[in-house]
Amino acid sequence: MSIKKILGTALAVASILGFAASAEAKTTVRISHTQIETHPDHIGFVAFKNFVESKAGDKYDVRIFPNSSLGANEKVLELVKMNSVQFLSVSTANIESFNKKYAVFSVPFLFTSESKFEKFITDPEVLAELGSDAEKDGFRPLGAFTAGTRNFYSKTPIKTVDDLKGKKFRVQAGPTNVKMMEAFGAAATPMSFGEVYSALQQGVIDGAENNELALTDQKHGEVCKYFSYDGHQMCPDLIVASEKFLSKLSDEDRKLFEDAAKEAQKAEFEAWHKRIAEAKEQAKKMGVTFIDVDANAFREKVLPLHQQLLNENPAMKAMYDKASAFNASNNK
Known about the structure:
Layout: H1 3-17, E1 27-32, H2 40-56, E2 60-65, H3 73-81, E3 87-91, H4 92-95, H5 114-121, H6 124-130, H7 134-137, E4 139-145, E5 150-154, E6 168-171, H8 175-184, E7 187-190, H9 196-201, E8 207-210, H10 213-216, E9 226-233, E10 237-242, H11 243-247, H12 251-285, E11 289-292, H13 295-302, H14 304-312, H15 317-329
Parallel strand pairs: 1-2, 1-3, 6-7, 6-8, 9-11
Antiparallel strand pairs: 3-10, 4-10, 5-8, 5-9
Helix pairs in contact: 2-12
């Protein structure tokens, strides 16, 4: 994105939202995410807002902008770097073009269970290591939201890995996802989340890959009637903060927002596991069939990709080794 476009977007956002006018006025804290208001991400940020305003409501006015109302994640991340937006829930797949080490979470079948994945992404040491380049990146992860496992859903059944061949699937932006789909023998079509429904309707793509909530919250289950549990990826949505915003805070206020991120994380996890069970039942009523596949066959297809990705992106090796060791040493 050109600097003119970034500045133009920032000015537009500023004119719409307004900035705190004086030292006497409350500081407006803007939070952006791409989901609807019943989604666990939003529930997490409501907990964030309530925590901050209960502790320092005289100083901070926290405003949440859901449903991509401020734009796609890649664009909003630029605004976070400029401190036009202070917090954002963003998939690691959308961050890897800004810092290549975040691509580690796009490596297929990195974790062998969802519980191991959830423990890893909420480990304070992991978050600190991810944020070690924050001054250069312009943003810092303070917490993580689980996004479950990513699976394939499509207009036709995906029962074996060979059923992917020749089909076009939407993936999140990022070179790792494109390479993964090529390894599966399918074509990757990166696009923003908000464009997927119309692309499915119009036949631009044959399917997509995500968790069960995409079927219901985004209504993808109206078009795609088959959801296959291969569990090829587990990518968290990180709670990232503007480094410019954090750097201006007192130690007390910085801890306030760090603690708020932990509250958001806790609330999102609780809401997530409840909502997934509900979404699956809701999707069944929409006519969606859930298919259990041989995940090992999918895994074997892309395991050789691990070394290729590490060779091409050495920046993620330290985090890859840490994740692999964590996965191997944890029994649950």
